[in-house]
Design goal:
Blueprint (H helix, E strand, L loop, with lengths): L4 E6 L5 H10 L3 E6 L4 H7 L3 E4 L25 E4 L1 H9 L3 E17 L12 E14 L5 E5 L7 E4 L4 E4 L11 H12 L8 H16 L4 E4 L4 H13 L4 E7 L7 H9 L5 E6 L1 H7 L6 H23 L4 E3 L4 H6 L25 E3 L7 H10 L4 H4 L19 H21 L5 E15 L2 E14 L7 E2 L4 H14 L3 E6 L13
Parallel strand pairs: 1-2, 1-3, 3-4, 4-9, 10-11, 10-13, 11-12, 13-14, 16-18
Antiparallel strand pairs: 5-6, 5-7, 7-8, 8-9, 15-16, 16-17
Helix pairs in contact: 5-6, 6-11, 13-14
Length: about 500
């Protein structure tokens, strides 16, 4: 991308991706790099602005992450957030010490000095604070521009050097006018022109794909998820009839999803292959209870089946993957902390037999992928599909897997999701889990001994944390009544009211 760029430097903050997404919502391209990036690399990127993220450490400790001090001499506008502003002050000669009283949660904040980053805002703001240290002395040339009852330097700046800082988090929804503050930094301080649009991204990727592929062929493993679906639509638009999509149906999809995927992609200008491998997967998983073992078996067998199909196709030069930007970040690319490994990040195995990989979504966040999907005119049921784990329902059936259990869950999950949608319940993710618990029930005049079904609905901004949704009792009652009456094998329904943390969104 040749757009203006804001560089987000990561010091271990949990909101780094959210910061980068907020910048992009301003139609300005952003990229995340490690906080210890070299000044030479920064000059190569040539950003119009730099944002320093928060982090869990104390800047005055020897083992805390630091940046090159020359960063602040480049003349590039810089915004420090939480740990980032403390690092800026500490590096430039100010003082940071443990706070007498830590600030957590929503705090009344008063803006005391007119600033470009607060342009158009009232003096009273509500901001999200999360810190145990505070700035006790400002570096030379800095002034405090906002304070709270417990933090005299809630916002600071050295306008002459274009250095700014917030002790609070402007990137989160809880800071009501945080987006406007970030926009003020990006446009008023950095001089952004807003040259990053999804239409331009699509056009550039189409050109890159066409130039690279030429007359060769491309292969994509189509899971039916948002990322692979948008990847397929984009490549087929760029190089019609040169893409082959292999959909390995492992038998763990939600109700009717496999048929929906086939219906959409079999009509596109690509070759669509559906491999019905349910029996093979169930056989490999017979008697397996432990969730991580399930994942590994499914992952390996998926690759085996995919490779078998690829071998039948003959001359295919490129492998396409729906890798998106969070996959790259979480897999430790660019020296970021390695949170988890992703199967589609890290290069091609030496024996895979392809001449290269095509990843046209590698620079996009999930919400941007959905926007691109709508732009490519994919149907809503594909673009708005909820996050779905690669192993599918295999990890929403607790314990050992059987076709009967999967079919029970498919029917119950379908009823649950449709009733929530019909009732207009707002949730970011919702699904059913078939537990391994069986209990006594009464239906008609008979005794039953059937499974307990757990229902889950959460609200989240980033899927790193979540709160459960307070589904109205009458809606839950209707869902429970329908499931136990319409789905054989279930006689008890429970609703999960646990947040993340301490739980995870999925059960396994």
């Amino acid at each position: 991308m040749k757009n203006q760029t804001v560089l987000v430097l990561d010091f271990g903050g949990q909101y780094k991706e959210l910061i980068a997404r907020r910048v992009r919502e301003c139609n300005v391209y952003s990229v995340i790099m490690p906080g210890n990036i070299t000044v030479e690399k920064i000059k190569e990127i040539a950003p119009i602005g730099i944002i320093l993220t928060g982090g869990p450490m104390s800047v005055y400790k020897d083992d805390s992450p630091k940046c090159d001090p020359r960063l602040f001499e480049l003349g590039i506008p810089i915004l420090g957030i939480c740990y980032g502003v403390q690092l800026m002050c500490y590096t430039l000669g100010g003082s940071v010490e443990p706070a007498d009283v830590s600030e957590y949660g929503l705090i009344d904040t008063e803006i005391t000095v007119a600033s470009k980053v607060f342009s158009g805002l009232d003096s009273r703001q509500i901001t999200l604070m999360s810190h145990t240290d505070k700035i006790t002395a400002l570096p030379q040339g800095f002034v405090s521009t906002a304070h709270t009852a417990g933090c005299e330097n809630a916002a600071i700046e050295n306008a002459d050097k274009k250095l700014y800082g917030f002790q609070f988090h402007p990137e989160v929804e809880n800071t009501k006018n945080g987006r406007q503050m970030l926009r003020g930094f990006v446009y008023e301080v950095c001089g952004a022109v807003g040259d990053f649009t999804m239409a331009d991204y699509e056009a550039e990727q189409i050109k890159l794909i066409r130039d690279r592929v030429g007359e060769d062929r491309v292969l994509l493993g189509l899971s039916g998820g948002v990322d692979s679906a948008v990847c397929a639509a984009l490549i087929s638009k760029a190089v019609p009839d040169k893409l082959t999509c292999v959909f390995v149906d492992h038998g763990f999809m939600r109700k009717d999803e496999g048929d929906q995927i086939e219906s959409v992609f079999s009509k596109m200008q690509l070759k669509f292959i559906r491999v019905n491998a349910e029996d093979r997967f169930l056989s490999a998983l017979k008697g397996v209870n432990e969730p991580e073992r399930k994942r590994k078996i499914i992952g390996k067998l998926f690759i085996d089946v995919f490779n078998e199909e690829a071998a039948k196709l003959g001359n295919v030069k490129y492998l396409a993957q729906g890798t998106i930007y969070p996959d790259v970040i979480e897999s430790g690319a660019n020296n970021s902390a390695n949170i988890k490994s992703h199967h589609n990040v890290g290069g091609l195995p030496k024996d895979i037999g392809f001449g290269g990989v095509i990843e046209p979504l590698r620079g996009l966040f999930k919400d941007e992928v959905r926007r691109l999907g709508r732009q490519l005119e994919l149907p809503d049921h594909i673009v708005e599909r909820q996050p779905f784990p690669g192993p599918g329902l295999a990890i929403r059936v607790i314990g050992d897997l059987t076709k009967q259990k999967l079919d029970i869950l498919r029917e119950a999950d379908s009823i649950y999701r449709s009733e929530l949608e019909n009732a207009g319940v707002k949730a970011d993710q919702y699904f059913a889990v078939l537990t391994n618990l069986r209990s006594v029930g009464v239906m008609g005049d008979g005794r039953t001994y059937d499974y307990t079904l757990a229902l889950r609905a959460v609200r989240t901004n980033d899927f790193m944390t979540c709160e459960y949704v307070e589904v109205p009792y009458d809606v839950l009652s209707k869902i429970s009544s329908r499931i136990v009456n319409e789905v054989d094998g279930i006689n008890r329904i429970v609703y999960d009211i646990t947040g993340k943390p301490p739980a995870t969104i999925e059960w396994e």
